[in-house]
Amino acid sequence: MNIVRLNPDFNDQERRSSLFGGDFLLYSRTPSAAALVEHAKGFIKEAFPSTDPQKAQYEMPVEQFIEKAGPLKSKFTNDLGTKEIIRSILAEHGCDLEKTYFDVPRLRVVTSDGFLTAGVGYAYKAHRDTWYSSPEAQLNWWLPVYDLAPGQTMSMYPGYWANTIKNSSNDFDYDEWCNVGRRMATTQGSVDTRKHPLPQEEVQPATETRFVLRSGETLVFAAAHLHATAPNTSGQTRFSMDFRTVHLDDLTSHQGAPNIDNHAIGTTLRDFLRASDFAPIPEEIIEQYQGQEA
Ligand SMILES: [Fe+2]
Questions:
Q1: What distance in angstroms lies between residue 151's CA and the mean position of ligand 1's atoms?
Q2: 3 state SS of 98
């Protein structure tokens, strides 16, 4: 059973336990989440200065849209201010900044009506982040920049929390992805030729659940949950932000969500930064964690 909790009065340990059990946690907009929204809007306005960014896709050819969305996403991810606001969000939620690490924050640009579904606007098929070499100890934090419509959000498939689905994660190697896949993202137009891990059987639609959040409201869930980009039928581009966290104690004690069907190679742990000072995870901890996985 997967429980949905709104603004739970959890400490960080209780929150992680709940999430590793498959629960979904929803949080109202905090001051720092509001700051992240405004921060993102600044970048978005810079990329699309003369039009409503959520409608900009209807005013330019797809190539021009890619030229704007690609640098927009990179700027948001690489900006120091973005990382500092995420540290504030984690502090607001009672995370231990010395033991909590987060990976690079991302800005997602999901266009409507199939305008752009590859590369910088890749519409993720159903996947668990763990199929992309994320650790089972990873938690995903997801928040929209603008209020969402049901036809604009993400699909969750909680029915697969405890049930396997045949998939191609055994073909996924994170090192290869970094060397080839990411660099190809800005060159992908209508077809995405990167080697994403994919389901190899039909995802049962009856299990689909959608969370329709308002600007800055936050959904937190375990990386092992099956989820996808819902086809955007809203008539507006979705701009959303996400980042992932791991807690040092979960890595050293090998706590996390159960792994039921993930066979990916490698780890994303070297991408994570300590919330307090943005230092990487010590290599010996990563090696120890991977040794436990093997
Ligand atoms: Fe994902």
A1: 18
A2: coil
Calculate the alpha carbon distances from 92 to 27, 31, 136, 194 in Å. 11, 9, 24, 37
Expressed in angstroms and rounded, the spacing between residue 290 Cα and the centre of ligand 1 is 21
Torsion sign across C-alpha atoms 82, 88, 89, 90: positive
Determine, yes or no, domain membership for 107.
yes
- Residue ranges making up the domain that contains 78: 27-293
Q: Give CA–CA dist 22/24, Å, rounded.
A: 7
CA of 76 to the centre of ligand 1 (A): 18
At 189-228, the pLDDT tens digits run 556 667 899 999 999 989 899 999 999 999 999 999 999 9
The amino acid sitting at 291 is G
Strands 273-274 and 139-144: unpaired
Predicted pLDDT of residue 10: 97
Residue 128 Cα to ligand 1 midpoint, Å, equals 6
74 pLDDT exceeds 60? yes
CATH number (domain holding residue 201): 2.60.120
Please tell me whether residue 238 adopts helix, strand or coil conformation. Answer: strand
Nearest alpha-carbon partner for 172 in 84, 265, 68: 265
Cα angle: 102, vertex 105, 110; to 5 degrees? 140
Whole-prediction pTM: 0.94
Cα 223 to averaged position of ligand 1 atoms, centre (Å): 7
Distance 288 CA to ligand 1 centre (A): 25
Q: What separation in Å is there between the alpha carbon of 50 and the centre of ligand 1?
A: 31
Ion ligand 1 contact residues with beta carbon within 5 A:
129
For residue 247, count CB atoms less than 10 angstroms from its CB and return exposed for 0-12, middle for 13-18, buried for 19 or more: buried
Question: Is 9 domain-assigned?
Answer: no
